[in-house]
Automatic annotation (TrEMBL):
Domain of life: Bacteria
Protein name: Radical SAM core domain-containing protein
Record's keyword annotation contains Metal-binding: yes
Phylogenetic classification of the source organism: Bacteria, Bacillati, Bacillota, Clostridia, Peptostreptococcales
Cross-referenced SUPFAM superfamilies: Radical SAM enzymes
Organism: Acetoanaerobium noterae
Domain Radical SAM core: 15-257
InterPro entries according to UniProt: ELP3 (IPR039661), Elp3/MiaA/NifB-like_rSAM (IPR006638), Radical_SAM_C (IPR032432), rSAM (IPR007197), rSAM_horseshoe (IPR023404), rSAM_sf (IPR058240), YhcC-like (IPR005911)
Keyword 4Fe-4S recorded: yes
């Protein structure tokens, strides 16, 4: 159904739409977040690194075009026919005045073979003017907007210091949906005080909101984050790789077929990773998920 996979992967979806390999290029647009610049707080989300959840993006000090050029030069030999989607990954990429946003997005779209934009942001950084701007990009390119919700649960919202409530997320998703802009929501697994029941509740909630895509990944404890300090004082249980693989397979089986799965495991910087160390071996986890799905004869949405 989805070529060699038992789930509806982003790779499959993009090949279907563009008829060729499409590669995401992560850039740092030089933005910040309301929970970092003092407008709502300082320090950001508890797990977030100083690079704003984008360890592999281009160099923030460089213009977007130079960041793209550097990354493409490394890929060109293997993927000479590839097209690109520019992923504004670090920090909140709709958190600036409209003129600045427009300049950054335009700079990305002007680059050769760029066929779309992926914009990561927060539920409270999508006001009417930003939605209006995004609508114009949605009309001229392939666009999706990612929101790092992580959990619908109040205690987790407070624990991660997200800085906005579920109603802001709901408002943002509904405005994006009304304008036919694709949405991707992030869900973090293994938050302290969450269990499988909580993950399923968050997942079902997101499905009801008619998201286009989803990213699932473990909570990463990275060096020099507030989560590292918390973990030293309040160590909490961390799933092992087998438990994670099994949980992901259970979740895949209740995700409707039309939802595009963008990520099943995270890939934080290896030098900064404190736990879970097994998550550094992304290939092992993805192979494990594929094997387990086959062993249990599960496919995306089969248990709905
Ligand atoms: S919103 Fe994203 S980038 Fe900003 S502090 Fe939270 S996790 Fe980091």
């Amino acid at each position: 159904m989805w070529l060699d996979k038992r789930y509806h992967s982003l790779d499959y979806e993009l090949k279907k739409i563009f008829g060729t390999k499409v590669i995401k290029l992560s850039v740092d647009g030089g933005f910040t977040c309301p929970t970092r610049d003092g407008s709502k707080g300082y320090g950001g989300c508890i797990f977030c690194s100083s690079r704003g959840s984008g360890e592999f993006s281009g160099d923030r000090a460089l213009p977007i075009k130079s960041q793209l050029k550097n990354q493409i030069s490394l890929l060109k030999e293997k993927w000479s026919e590839a097209k690109y989607i520019v992923y504004f990954q670090n920090f909140s990429n709709t958190y600036a005045d409209i003129k600045t946003l427009k300049e950054k997005y335009d700079e990305a779209l002007e680059f050769d073979n760029v066929v779309g934009l992926a914009i990561a942001t927060r539920g409270d950084c999508l006001d009417k003017d930003v939605i209006k701007l995004l609508k114009t990009y949605n009309e001229k390119t392939f666009l999706w907007v990612e929101i790092g919700l992580q959990s619908i649960h109040k205690h987790s919202e407070e624990f991660i210091r997200r800085g906005y409530g579920l109603e802001a997320f709901d408002g943002a998703i509904s405005a994006l949906n009304q304008n036919n802009i694709r949405t991707v929501a992030h869900l973090i697994l293994n938050l302290p005080n969450e269990t499988k029941k909580h993950y399923i509740e968050t997942l079902n909630y997101l499905v009801e909101k008619q998201i286009w895509g989803i990213k699932l990944h473990m909570l990463h404890i990275l060096k020099n984050t507030d989560l590292e300090s918390y973990y030293k004082i309040h160590p909490f249980d961390i799933m092992d790789a087998d438990a994670y693989i099994s949980l992901i397979c259970d979740l895949i089986s209740i995700i409707p077929e039309e939802i595009v799965i963008h990520r099943l495991t995270g890939d934080g910087s290896k030098e900064d990773l404190i736990a879970p160390l097994w998550s550094a071996n992304k290939r092992y986890i993805l192979n494990g998920i594929n094997k387990e799905l086959a062993k249990r004869n599960l496919t995306q949405g089969c248990n709905l």
